[in-house]
Amino acid sequence: MTPITPESVLRVHGRVSIRPEPFGALLYHFGTRRLSFLKSPVLLHVVESLGEGRTVAQALDDADVAPQQRPGVLRALATLRESEMLVEEAA
Amino acid sequence: MSTATLLERPAPAPRLIEHFERGLNSPICLTWELTYACNLSCVHCLSASGRRDPRELTTEECKAVIDELQRMQVFYVNIGGGEPTVRSDFWELIDYATSHDVGVKFSTNGVKITSEIAERLARNDYVDIQISLDGATAEVNDAIRGPGSFDLAMRALQRLSDAGMTRLKLSVVCTRTNIGQLDEFKAIADRFGAQLRLTRLRPAGRGADVWHELHPTQDQQRELYQWLLAHGEEVLTGDSFFHLSALGESLPGLNLCGAGRVVCLIDPIGDVYACPFAIHDEFLAGNIRSEGGFDGVWRHSDLFARLREPQTGGACSSCQFFDTCRGGCMAAKFFTGLPLDGPDPECVRGFADEALAAVDGERPKPSGDHSHRTSPPRPRAGKSRPVKLTLQLSKPTAPPVSACNANPLAGLSID
Amino acid sequence: MDPKSQTTTADVIDVETDDLVEDVSIDGMCGVY
């Protein structure tokens, strides 16, 4: 799969439920029945900022992600795309 | 690793599992027993089911619970009982749940699974189903679950498989009598396109009466453990064998007791317990009919607050396997009369053996008994010897001393 | 700390170096349903 870049356009899969928790969030995919932990409130904020055609860069800015944190967040977004929690759209 | 002593080492930072142990905003594997009514009388039933309780939640009350679960964003609910499908509103309730963002995974002995029902279930993508079976042959199964129950389960599996149901599980409680049939269980599951689950027997409900006869021996636990390792993630365990992790490599799963933290039980009359295996006042957190409803109990009950405090592990914390075993199952300890801060009764390192021998007096009895009335009445746990499941086959070697001899030492010779 | 465990020991997640997403392998807890 192509790596996630700031120009990638992602949205949360329609069958995913996001539940904030003190440590971050739980994501449950009603189709795959997979359950994922988001271990950071920063990442949750990024995920919640996606959608409606927004780019990853826009979501990173919305969530105030510091430059040194961005590679880790991009890796996490890639993991979520692989597990179908996030869906990539044509840019 | 430094040479600092246990006292000098700084406390390890909390692991992710410990976030779970502090409790979640909403339960994940919430179990909801819809009714105590059941067409069967399995000897080990964790909820001592059989007869309906007249205080059962009404259809409207059940829908109000589902509304709450939707608001709490509970992803799915595990529905059981008794036999949940004997409620006349069962299909209405699962349709209500699945159309209100709450997935349903339900457990059944198969009694109501007609071909039409099987077709309907196969089409609802938000419903998973699990068929209970405790023997790979009718002989072994029916000794535990009653005459005809094996055929009932197989018929349901066939109909579900024919209907193209993919989210199908075969759920087995591991006992002394079925550990030798693990490969056959796998074959049955494969035949119907089902996933096999092997789960742990607890001394809960009627299980308390048969625990000493039915729970696997230490040798069988080792056999089971090896088999589970060999079958990896294709066989599920419901995370119920984490105490076996002390045999070596830990098994897949979270390996922790989630009672009151990740899971809890709503029973047919709305009582909320920390866990389905702990139906006892000691683990009663509240009732959904109270003002705050289920959410109020989950968030504010004193019992759950206590369970969500950091646990020290007590006597087990010095064991090298504590990390993955975590002292085993709270309910198993409680109903065998063991202290909660000590080893599990099936501790694979044998640490419970002495403690079990020392258990004096009556063990805690499960709270309710909804069993079908039998004649003679079932013995209650803690009062007398466990019920023998097998008849004595050997003939006596000598005639009785006397047909009626009041002396208990009659015939006794001392060397 | 179990070396085979996938969990992190960091109390506060280090967003720069740690994995921020973890799959939860949770097939019904306690093995009931």
Report low-confidence residues of chain B grouped into runs of 5 or more. 1-14, 381-388, 390-395, 401-407
**Through-space gap between termini of chain B:** 59 Å
**Based on CA inertia axes, which overall geometry of chain B fits?**
globular
Q: Rough shape of chain A?
A: globular
How many β-strand runs of chain B? 10
Walk across the major sheet of chain B and give the strand order: 7-6-5-4-3-2-1-8-9-10
- The number of helical runs of chain B is 14
Describe this structure as you would to a colleague.
The complex is a heterotrimer of chains A (91), B (415) and C (33). In chain A, 37% of the residues are buried. In chain A, a hairpin with a 5-residue loop joins β3 and β4. Chain A is of the alpha+beta class and 91 residues long. In chain A, 32% of the residues lie in helices and 26% in strands. Chain A starts with 8 loop residues before the first strand and ends with a strand. Chain B has 14 helices and 10 strands. Chain B has helices at 16-21, 59-71, 90-98, 115-123, 138-145, 149-162, 182-191, 207-214, 218-231, 293-300, 302-307, 322-325, 330-335, 353-357, and strands at residues 30-33, 76-80, 103-108, 127-132, 168-174, 195-200, 235-236, 265-266, 271-273, 284-287. Chain B is globular. With 33 residues, chain C is low in regular secondary structure. Helices cover 0% and strands 9% of the residues of chain C. Chain C is built from no helices and 1 strand. Chain C has one strand spanning 21-23. The N and C termini of chain C lie far apart (30 Å). Residues 1-11 of chain C have low confidence and may be disordered. Classes of the chains: A alpha+beta (91), B alpha/beta (415), C little secondary structure (33). The interface between B and C is medium-sized, with 44 and 20 residues.
